[in-house]
Design a protein that fits this description.
The complex is a heterodimer.
Chain A lengths: L1 H31 L6 H19 L2 H22 L9 H23 L15 E4 L3 E4 H23 L1 H11 L1 H6 L4 H23 L9 H16 L4 H27 L4 H26 L10
Antiparallel strand pairs in A: 1-2
Helix pairs in contact in A: 1-5, 1-6, 1-8, 1-9, 1-10, 2-3, 2-4, 2-8, 2-9, 3-8, 5-6, 9-10, 9-11, 10-11
Chain B lengths: L3 H6 L5 H15 L1 H7 L4 H25 L7 H21 L13 H23 L4 H21 L9 E2 L14 H24 L1 H11 L1 H7 L3 H27 L1 E2 L6 H14 L6 H19 L4 H14 L3 H9 L6
Antiparallel strand pairs in B: 1-2
Chain lengths: 304, 338
């Protein structure tokens, strides 16, 4: 029971991380019509900036905003220099140009920080674990991640549903030509939105830093999972991204936790572990295939 | 031939381009001798690689360039083709039965068709699922499915898992020594020419016309009464078969297969080759493959961190030249590139 509970919390934690990435990706796609492969690079930039500042100053409280700022600035620059020119292009051009950006960012990070993964300590005040409901001890840091992720989700909901900026975002998603015609500076809105998406990705990277190793290529691993989330949830839908992220986080975590045990009943230990690792890595893609068979537009499509 | 429709449909004969292709073929045919003459032994191996990747890129182009299906997962079919060769060879050497039958072989006349069939089968299954979506979803789904197949081969410990499989000797052909580099180069060249000729026929056929129609407006094709799904699936499978053929040849060339062949960056590179050379042109992907591989090998000789140069080059190419190399050519000549 306590194991199940712990794994469920791990699933939620992976889910909120994926949500932070998927929300940015799906908003950027929904509003600007741009598919940004380099979204994972922003996640990596956030993690690296945080790790570098933490190593220099030893302060998590400085490193945290530094990671967010680095991802945000990188995102705005990316929009201003490259992505802005891709709005009118087809998806193929967008994919290839942002693929070029990934090559650049990965190699640049290798030049700056080397190939060795960086490790970041969990800050003192989030160290240790707490008892939840008398059933399970759970690390404070992971709980904090879940809290920040959920708070961001609520904040995003308020931003989109309750503010003027959110109104423009929703209007832009429905008909961007009309928004432009009504005199809204759509370029500024786009840059702003891209910056917000980048900071969300950076936030995910910053938070994942202390529990994963910070290394080149971390962005692509999570990017492809994020794609799965976005497809499952329905492209352009933040609500769908939330549902999809939790589903993917949960399925992935549960398969990794329980599949080896199940398979070990059927075959020899090492073989079972290898097969379980493969099957659980494939699990989320199967989930996606099933969702697509039933609802090709995703679970919570943006329009209609 | 007085039918005006037929005359309009007939391809324009361009003497200059025919001569150019003929010249290129002659140069390619005597390339091993040229390499000997200029004492560049590495050239033959490099050229073999380019020819093999050109087959894969041209196959992707059939789906991407002619039919508008932006598949971001073609490395999967390429890798499956490679693994067919690797696995069959593995069983041939060890003598272990495959599916309970003594199926291992090192005969190229068997391995290549099997590789084509198996990758076509994979492409049919995953294509049937992926084609339920379109646009961006299709891009993401082909990527995700390719990633799934990638993880499958990583987990396949019986065939090397992460480390891949070594194919110690190239598959053999009756009467021909495939172990000789130049001979293998010619084999690949002949197969590539045959494949491009087939693609040319496909594109010029009624089927090809439907593909172009789907690219331009799927709704219009549906309105005419054409079941577009079937055509898209068919072209996806043919395209996957071509990628599988290339993978099988690459397994023979490199004498090694590993999950790296299925890595998503490989899919990205195929797409770059197609765009670089010009999507929707017959020989463009071959030119794109040549340029990309030569560029990579030149940059890699220049710096270990060549991707830091290639990445921005790619971005600039997409932003400022439409239609890849031909767009660049127009740009340099000062013409408009609309």
């Amino acid at each position: 029971m306590s194991l199940l509970m712990e794994q469920a919390l791990n699933g939620v934690q992976l889910g909120v991380t994926l949500f932070l990435l998927a929300a940015g990706l799906t908003l950027i796609f929904g509003i600007m019509g741009v598919i940004n492969l380099a979204h994972g690079s922003l996640y990596m930039i956030g993690a690296y900036a945080m790790a570098a500042v933490a190593a220099k100053t030893g302060s998590f409280l400085l490193a945290f905003p530094a990671g967010l700022a680095a991802a945000g600035i990188a995102g705005v620059l990316m929009e201003y220099l490259v992505v802005r020119r891709l709005y009118a292009r087809d998806h193929l051009d967008q994919v290839l140009a942002t693929f070029g950006l990934i090559l650049f960012f990965n190699q640049l990070t290798t030049i700056l920080f080397g190939r060795q993964p960086l490790f970041v300590e969990i800050p003192d005040f989030l160290e240790g674990s707490v008892m939840i409901g008398g059933i399970v001890r759970y690390p404070v840091y992971r709980l904090a991640m879940i809290a920040v992720g959920l708070a961001t989700a609520i904040g995003l909901y308020v931003l989109i549903a309750r503010t003027r900026l959110g109104m423009l975002i929703r209007a832009g998603a429905t008909n961007r030509e009309m928004v432009r015609a009504l005199g809204v500076d759509i370029r500024l809105l786009y840059t702003l939105l891209f910056g917000v998406g980048a900071m969300l990705a950076g936030l995910a990277g910053v938070m994942a830093g202390p529990i994963l190793s910070v290394q080149v290529g971390m962005g692509e691993q999570v990017l492809i999972l994020t794609f799965v989330v976005v497809v499952i949830g329905g492209i352009g839908s933040v609500r769908g991204a939330f549902i999809g992220a939790l589903a993917v986080g949960m399925v992935d975590t549960m398969l990794r936790a329980y599949l080896p045990g199940v398979l070990r009943q059927l075959m020899a230990g090492p073989d079972a572990d290898a097969l379980a690792a493969g099957l659980s890595a494939m699990g989320v893609y199967m989930l996606m295939a099933i969702v697509l068979l039933v609802k090709p537009q995703g679970l919570a499509p943006a329009h209609g | 031939m007085d039918d005006p429709l037929k005359r309009a449909m007939a391809p324009r004969k361009n003497v200059r381009s025919v001569l150019l292709v003929a010249l290129a073929l002659v140069v390619l045919a005597v390339l091993p001798q040229l390499a000997d003459m200029f004492e560049q032994p590495a050239l033959v191996s490099l050229a073999t690689r380019i020819i093999i990747l050109a087959i894969a890129a041209a196959s992707l182009n059939l789906a991407l360039g002619y039919c508008g299906l932006v598949s971001f997962g073609h490395a999967a079919w390429y890798g499956v083709g490679g693994y067919v060769v690797g696995i069959l060879y593995n069983h041939y050497v060890s003598g272990d039965p495959l599916f309970g039958l003594p199926l291992g072989t090192d005969q190229m006349l068997i391995t290549l068709p099997v590789a084509i069939l198996v990758s076509g089968l994979f492409a049919a299954v995953f294509g049937a699922l992926s084609l339920r979506t379109s646009g961006v979803q299709f891009i993401m789904i082909t990527l995700a499915f390719a990633q799934m197949i990638f993880f499958f081969f990583v987990a396949l410990k019986a065939y090397g898992g992460d480390d891949g499989l070594i194919v110690r000797r190239r598959n053999s052909l009756p009467l021909i020594d495939t172990r000789d580099g130049a001979t293998f180069y010619w084999i690949c060249l002949v197969i590539a020419i045959a494949w491009f000729a087939l693609l040319r026929r496909i594109v010029a056929s009624r089927f090809g016309a439907v593909l172009a129609g789907v690219r331009q407006s799927e709704r219009r094709m549906a309105a005419i009464g054409i079941s577009t799904y079937r055509y898209k699936l068919a072209v996806f499978v043919i395209s996957g078969m071509g990628a599988g053929l290339a993978g099988a040849l690459m397994a023979n060339h490199a004498r090694f297969v590993s999950p790296d062949m299925l890595h998503w960056t490989q899919s990205g590179e195929f797409m770059i080759m197609v765009i670089l050379g010009g999507a929707g042109t017959l020989l463009g992907p071959a030119a794109g493959a040549a340029v990309l591989i030569l560029l990579e090998s030149q940059l890699a000789a220049f710096t270990e961190h060549w991707q830091v140069i290639l990445g921005p080059l790619l971005v600039l190419m997409i932003l400022f030249t439409r239609g890849g190399l031909s767009g660049l050519w127009k740009l340099l000549r000062g013409g408009s590139n609309g």
